[in-house]
Target: Splicing factor subunit
Amino acid sequence: MQASDRFNINSQLEHLQAKYVGTGHADLSRFEWAVNIQRDSYASYIGHYPMLSYFAIAENESIGRERYNFMQKMLLPCGLPPEREVD
Model:
């Protein structure tokens, strides 16, 4: 692998990170990354009707109730954020 290949890969990664929020960046905390993953998952469940109906059948709820529950879970998917250290 040459230095130009590494530069090209890094520039492509930076471009993806700037374009798509879910790919993260260097300053992204573990909590923020987990929140992005959970929200993406819930949005996918809501957006794909067969998956939503599968969850509704599995939990014995209506499809509208499952959609509502997923949207409520998107607010705080991983609980409250951890306390940050004050410098």
